[in-house]
Protein 1
Amino acid sequence: MPVAVFLALVFGCVGAVLMGIGLSRRHVSRDWLCAKGRIIASDRGLSTPSRYPRFEWRDEHGNRHMHESSMSSWRHYRKGDLVAVRYDPAFPKRAVIDTPVQRGASFFWLGGLLCGIAGLFLSVELLLN
């Protein structure tokens, strides 16, 4: 198997998986409600940055909820930082900090880029043969 075809398969498969993750996260959180929240704690201490921030918010009925992000974040939040939150009104414990990474948009676009690179590898292989 030519190297270009192998690389196209690798990049294409990884890209497709990332696009699928992004689409599923976006689809799930699309109809969720928005709320204002704040960072309440950190894995590394109360005032040091955390990659998995714990946050709280109030739902449309005024009930307070707390959640720890299941995805790491490139931004290091500190205790007290204000954040936008998206949550499932049917099950408010399902929530994300409203960022492109948490909503899945970053996964989708990175997957699309990798699929495009896969297409370039295939095009080069076809042109050379």
Protein 2
Amino acid sequence: MEMCHHTLHDCDEPVEPHREHYSDCCPHHAKPWRLGHIPLRGLLHLLILKILSKEPMRGVDIRSKLKDEVGLEVPASAIYTILGLLENKGLVASTWHVEEKGPARKLYRITEEGLDYLNDAITRIKEYKRITDYLSQ
């Protein structure tokens, strides 16, 4: 059996090479994020963009929305990783919000490019739904 030799930490757990998922440490150790039996690894960035299309918010608030509105418990580190990737691609922008009390907080908002990307993705998903509806008849 192949063993994990992740470079960031000592890990000798068995590797399950055919499972696709993400975790805080090794991708092959986590439970996949699932909604029913649909893997959400490729959709999580779209869920985050959709949430940000309603209003700017902090990463912790995005995590709460995912849990409350979609029923997903996603590690905070995954949300911040995705936010960073979306920001690097120009789909999300962030600003520091400073209040009188407490530390500065980073607020994320979707950009116009991010809205265009999200709308294009929703159009493609609707097309896939039409096809899967046809297949299930």
